[in-house]
Prior knowledge:
Chain A has helices at residues 3-29, 40-65; strands at residues 80-87, 90-92, 98-99, 103-110, 115-121, 126-132, 138-143, 148-154, 167-172. Chain A has 2 helices and 9 strands. Chain A is elongated and about 75 Å long. Chain B is 67% helix and 1% strand. In chain B, 57% of the residues are buried.
Amino acid sequence: MGTTATILSISFTITCAVGIAFVLYIARSTRQRGALEPDRASLAEREKAWFVVVTAVLVALLVATIWFTPYGRSESANATVLKIRSIQFAWLIPNTRIEAGRPIEFELTSDDVNHDFAVYTMSGTLLFEVQVMPGYTTRYSYTFKRPGTYRVLCLEYCGVGHAQMQDTLTVSA
Amino acid sequence: MTSGHLAPSPEPLPPGPQLDTARSLAFRFLIASTVILGAAGILGLILRDSQAGAGRLPDGWWYAIMTAHGLGAFVGWAAFAVMGLSYWVLAQVGFPVRPAGLVLARLTWWLMVVGVAGVVVTCVAFRYGGSWVFLYPISFYGSGQWGRWTSFFFSASVLLAGLSIVTWCLSVLHTVLGPALHAVERNILNRIGVAMGFGYLAPSRFATNPRPVPYPVLPLTVIALDMIVATLPLAVLLVEMMVQSLSPSVHVDPLLAKNVLWFFGHPVVYLLLFPAVAIYYLLVPRFAGRPLVAGNIIAVAWAIAVTANVIIWAHHIYLDYPSGSPQAAIDVTMEPLTFSVTIVSALSLYSLFFTIFRSRYPWNAASTALFLGLASWMIAGFSGIVNATIAFDQIIHNTLWIVGHFHQMAFLGIGFTIIAATYAWLPEWTGKPLYSETLGRWHVWLTFVFTMAATAIWMYQGLLGGPRRFAVLPNRYDAATQLAVPISLLIGAAQLLFAWNVVQTLRGKGVGRVARADLASPRAIAIGIAALAAASLGGWGVYRSQARSAGPATPTAPVSGALAAGKRVFLTSGCSGCHTLASAGATGTVGPNLDQTKPSVARVVQFVTNGKKTMPSFRSTLTPTQIQDVAAFVSRTAGTK
């Protein structure tokens, strides 16, 4: 699991735990016989406060994460350009030398349908993925830190051979 | 009317022909959609069990069944069911379906039934496997599995289902904007504003007399407006696809088509959710025995919903940003807009949970389903926010995480309103008591616990990068997939309890007895679920340990030096995607089976270098030596195993 996935797993688990605790609290409250009838008017008023809280949390999440988009990552001066064509059901990867530590500018095209170029480590961590669309070129820049072999899968359903559309990239030192 | 929380509970239609009409409509929709659920559910079980290696389907069949399962379960069951239940919800808050609306409602039923039947036939009989989003232009790239006539009939069938949605919207608008609205103004725009709840914010401008608009009307009005806007462009695309099936020179831009698809594809999620919210707004206050806790802010929520719903589609295509297109800008803009619809769910959940808070909420089959549905909606909402965040989407996009998210939302968050409605209203509609409250509670709890477990497995696999829509997953996901097998079977078994309960109720076998305390107590159900979970885990553990000690199922035979290079080329160049060749473990069915054709070296060199028909040329990606190697490997080993 990569860093983002780890952060996501932990924060998502905590959020769910808080949510489940709240649901249990509501469920238990229906079994408290003789408890005070809640003041519905004030609960309805407090909905406005809840509106503010939710909005604030969403704005915070937006501000914290909006910097981490994949857009516009390209045009590194000394990048190695790697033009990859995709077809049903193969990646046509040229024999260009890929070096660890040097930016790779992927130029991705498709001859037929939509594909999704996804690169994993051999141990299964998803490093990045980029959608590829027929009639367009999509650019994505990435620098492999370590030499070795990386696995390429297609993550956009592309037809009956989709699961077999696999390949590898070799990164040299 | 200024204080929403003081709004009295709305009065249902009195007994009579109008109530009978709503009842027969809702009943017809519910029965047809439940039959579709049965079929789609079985297909879903087959898919997951095949992934685990239990009855493995050929890939082509797997994708065809995946397409039928997705469209069947999502549109044919969930959407269809809540669309029908909406007529009953409206009747329960005093809105009769009038003659023109009734004609449209009946047309809706027929269009949907014929459309879904067409989808199932084109997928299951003619193996259309473009997936339920039929991402343009995949319909025209069937790799020999399906041809242009199948694409034509598939597109036509989906078009019928789409038109069914439009006629439903018109019938709902005709109903909510009728005299039952009690709007003071006759102006149509003003009436639409009233039906969307603007009167809670501006009572004099959007005046009603004598009573304010009932809350369940708000989400139904909003979705009826939005789905007309959202469906029409998709209908145009479907017509284009029908034309293209017959005359291949016609085509559209794939990026435009993708945006059109999701311009529909996002709101259609709310075609399920918003009528489900109307059911929650109606039933939760009834069970809690008090009016919905809702401030006037709820009208703000629905005003956000009607607008944001149709301008947030790009969160489905965050990772599409081809050079020279404005897509990246659209994607970034739609992240905050997507966040804004979260507010609608957050406010609705607040209202509904605090309506239950310290009430005398009962815990029968129907009300338990409703409560667990709310809990699932909240949990699925959390993963929805994750999906809406570009930074997170980059690592879960098109993974099994998404599959977990939408099964949680559609099957539990929305499906439980349909199940609750069935338990609550089937006896009322038929005049026959529910066959068994005990079976009902078991069904609801088993479904909740094991579907949550199944979705948790998907989400966990997704966090590990597990790809969605793979007939055969990379084997590092096998352990978790195999655990999903007993769980999926338990979910299926729970639905048999539901089916049996419904059938016996319809046959008049119920005697109106209350639940048997010893068999339906929380303790009994908890022990039963724990036992079943332990059995699933135990069985899985035994299976895993046996599989490990048996070693790899298909040891690869060593290939002598010269051929090894050719085999490597074969395995890494995508050959196995299309061809069957036992010596390489390849099982593709798109192109010729090499074990049968046993081509000569020269023939392989010729085809690999120059391509032939759908087979591409590999001249620019393989060196002449590599082509010689792969040709030697294929020619020498074909048909040898």
